[in-house]
Amino acid sequence: MSGAHIGIDLGTTYSLVATLVDDEPQVLENAVGELLTPSAVSLTDDGELLVGAVARARATTHPKATALAFKRDMGTDRLVSLGDREMRPEELSALVLGALKRDAEAVLGQSIAEAVVTVPAYFGELGRRATRDACELAGLHVERIINEPTAAALAYGLHERHREMRAVVLDLGGGTFDVTVLEIMEGVIEIQASAGDSRLGGEDFVDRLSDHVVAELRQRYDIDLASDPRGLARVRDAVEMAKRRLSKDARTQIALPRLGASARDVELELTLDQAEELWQPLLGRVRGPIRRALGDAGLKPEDVDEVLLVGGATRMPCVVQLAATLFGRLPLRTLPPDFAVAHGAAIQAALKRGDAAVADMVVTDVAPFTLGIAVGDKVGSHEVSGLFAPILDRGTVLPASRVRTFSTISNGQTQINVEVYQGEHSICRENQKLGELLLKKIPAKPAGEESVDVRFSYDMNGILDVDATIKSTGRTSTLTIDRGDGRLTASQRKEIKKRLQTLKFHPRDALPNATALARAEALYLELVGTERDILSDAMRSMRTALESQDPVLIEQARSTLLGLAHDLAQR
Predict the structure, then answer these.
(1) What is each CA distance from 91 to 50, 64, 73, 168, 480, in whole angstroms?
(2) N or C: which end of the chain has fewer CB within 10 A?
């Protein structure tokens, strides 16, 4: 297949695309000349869709028309409101993936033949299939999905391939947390265990601080933002910036001019000690998956040679300190934490293409969850149903195929409903249901005299196929997990594809101008007095230049506006 092969890190907060250039992974610039593309979609008043940086900037000024953090809902039936529209998480992710595809094609000067896309290691079966659906909707050919910590391990392994070491990757991104235990030996990267929390990330740390600031505003200033989406969005933006400053400073100020219905100017101080106290429950959730992954790998913290930090949220001092305390050593961040996963995805794409630069590298992976079915048991006249019978244990090296034999429990039983679950609880209702397969025409026999073999086949992408075979007849029924809660049907995919083709997008070459204005609008809300007037003049000049359609004037006005906005934001 001709064309470029790329790796995509589809993130909760930011996404990026990379490819191998001169035998080294390189992140590609987007339409506004940046490496990180916000995973954001916004709808304008005239029905035009904006994706990326311009959409993220509108989250403050147009919160009800902007969607963020929708990756967390991949594999669910949740609908996300976008102005007067409702869209599925797969659709929104497809819009981000489509923007990344167009940006990569513009930089590389050729079409994209194939992509490797990353998912959190602790993403379930439905989340992985939803990701594949999003890729298909975006027009991306994707045969390989790779776990994010595995991708990060590949990025580190490229530079450490001649070293033998046992490492733990801690991947704390915007919305998910993964822990992976691995061993690198002569270019072979063997994943030994994975654990994580698919709803824990930097966004949650921002949420805790935002809740604290909102409560402080209510108590100290009598400002109630419960019914003020724009006010809440402003607080969250200010808190996110404060969190970043607290990665370097012990205290910081949060200034919010003209806030709330009373348009009061407020200022609050936030200290690192306050923040870390608020974050203690979240840090406790970080510890659990680390212990579980080490336990599954049969290791103690002192058995680990290196701790590798991945994901923007690992910049927080409390996360670094937690890792150092648990493992008794300072963690490594030799690769930029925002780029490591994309680098690894690009390496996996090169491996799949057969690139000579990575020909000596091999990577294995493991199943992050236990997979099994619901069974019943009968003692005398009492029957208990909904018990979880594991077939493929978490930590099994992939690809894998496992089979277990089950028997009928009732006299004359002629059908069995094979319900498939993933999880670690002994009761099915505490696990996640993936789908079901009704097995009919079972020969009527006394209880226990007819058997069914249930085989689970789990591939390198974490995609499951289920075969159920009646032993006496040899008849097999197959279930590829293709339905169930959160899964798009073939007709839904077709309908969404058709709808996406009719959407109106902002022209790619005009995105730098739209982004500059959107960011200036968000900053305008936070300024007062002379500074606000200066920014307003620059925005007016920018809009006048756009009306003139003179490329030189537009470039000059945009450069002036961006420089001024940057200077004002730093004050």
Answers:
(1) 13, 17, 12, 34, 22
(2) C
* Start-to-end CA span in the chain (Å): 52
In the residue annotation, 148 being an active-site residue is answered as yes
d(CA 47, CA 531): 32
Q: Is the peptide bond prior to 399 cis by the omega test (within 30 degrees of 0)?
A: yes
The residue whose two tokens read 């997008």 is 505
What is the C-alpha to C-alpha distance for residues 283 and 442, in angstroms, rounded to an integer? 51
Amino acid letter at 157? G
Instruction: Say yes or no to pLDDT of 481 above 70.
Output: no
* pLDDT band of 1, cuts 50, 70, 90: low
Averaged pLDDT score across all residues of the chain: 92
Q: Please report which residue ranges of 279-433 form alpha helices under DSSP H.
A: 280-297, 317-327, 340-353
pLDDT tens-place string over residues 5-29:
999 999 999 999 999 999 899 999 9
In angstroms, the CA 347 to CA 6 distance is 9
Rounded CA-CA distance 120/192 in Å is 16
Of these residues, 71, 133, 338, 419, which one is catalytic? Answer: 71
What are 551's two structure tokens? 């490329």
Residue 379 has pLDDT above 80, yes or no: no
Q: 71 an active-site residue?
A: yes
Short-list 70, 69, 88, CA closest to 79 = 88
For residues 212 and 22, what is the distance between their CA atoms, to the nearest angstrom?
48
Residue 31 has pLDDT above 50, yes or no: yes
Whether the Cβ atoms of residue 147 and residue 120 lie closer than 8 Å to each other = yes
Residue pair 188/382 in contact by the 8 Å Cβ criterion: no
Which has the closest alpha carbon to 327: 275, 287, 372? 287
DSSP E strands in 462-528: the ranges are 464-470, 476-480, 504-505
Q: What is the pTM of this model?
A: 0.89
Is the pLDDT at 321 greater than 50, yes or no?
yes
Give the pLDDT confidence score for residue 504 in this predicted structure: 87
Taking each continuous run of H as one helix and of E as one strand, the counts in the chain are 14, 28
Catalytic residue among 160, 171, 178, 197: 171
Q: Which of 73, 90, 136, 148 is catalytic?
A: 148
Q: Is 306 a catalytic residue?
A: no
Which one of the listed residues 9, 178, 204, 237 is annotated catalytic?
9
Name 429's Cβ contacts closer than 8 Å, sequence gap at least 6. Answer: 386
Burial 3-29 (b: 16+ CB within 10 A, else e): ebbbbbbbbbbbbbbbbbeeeebbbbb
At 486 the pLDDT is 54
